[in-house]
Amino acid sequence: MTFISPRRYRPRLLNALLGAGAMTITATAAPGAGHAADTGSFTPAQRQEIVEIMRNALKTDPTILSDAITALRNNANAAQQNAARSALESHRADLLAPAASDAILGNATGHTTVVEFYDPRCPYCRKVLPDLDRLTREDRDLRIVEKVIPVLGQNSLIASQALVAAFVQGGQPAYFRMQAAIMNDSVTPTTDRMRTLATQSGLNAATLASDMNGPKVTAILQANMELARAIGLDGTPTFVFNARQIIPGAVSYDELKKAIAQSR
């Protein structure tokens, strides 16, 4: 959700209203008195008069402010959408062709690709997991590419490193076993805790702990983060549908299903 703060756009609103005030002064001033307004330069007295006009107008018709805020919000949303479309187009190949290090839910050769950027410590990412499993069971042409990004601090980094290290050690099956362990675990992540979860998941705990800070795991996480930044990601989870549409934040099963259908 994008929220535009009225305070943030107050200078732009003020400038717009000052411009309107300039036209009013130019039209009504006596001959010879309009030079300052014509050049966009006001005397202190003129500026004070404009401010009073603005203040009185806003008191008598509050819709002026709400209409201005709505226009600014619409312009900001349009600019954001244009930037997102441009970013998706620039990184289309990266979003449609899974990397060798990406875990994939569903049909690995499916024609419909959803990329999920997620943090294993994000509660919304945990909540949506059953919906993703359901979608891939119901839609045999769907593949969901998972990209782990540690955006919630040191605990997220440790959990993310363990997930990728599990993939490095045993591929997709090891990754998904470790994912189930981590995403259902309520204990604060530490390297020792990751060793315990690795053992419970049938992995070599010592190897996983060593790989967590190794160059391969680091490179994979860095690549995921760079792609996330490139498309303007600002939260988790974030879903990208066939490199055409981005939906950030928590979404329901029905919303995901609708977006998948629209992207085809």
From TrEMBL:
Signal sequence annotation: 1-29
PROSITE patterns assigned to the protein according to its UniProt record, in alphabetical order: THIOREDOXIN_2
Domain Thioredoxin: 77-264
UniProt-listed CDD domains: DsbA_Com1_like (cd03023)
Keywords on record: Disulfide bond, Oxidoreductase, Redox-active center, Signal
Top-rank lineage group of the source organism: Bacteria
GO molecular function, one term: oxidoreductase activity
Protein's UniProt name: Thioredoxin domain-containing protein
Organism in which the protein naturally occurs: Komagataeibacter swingsii
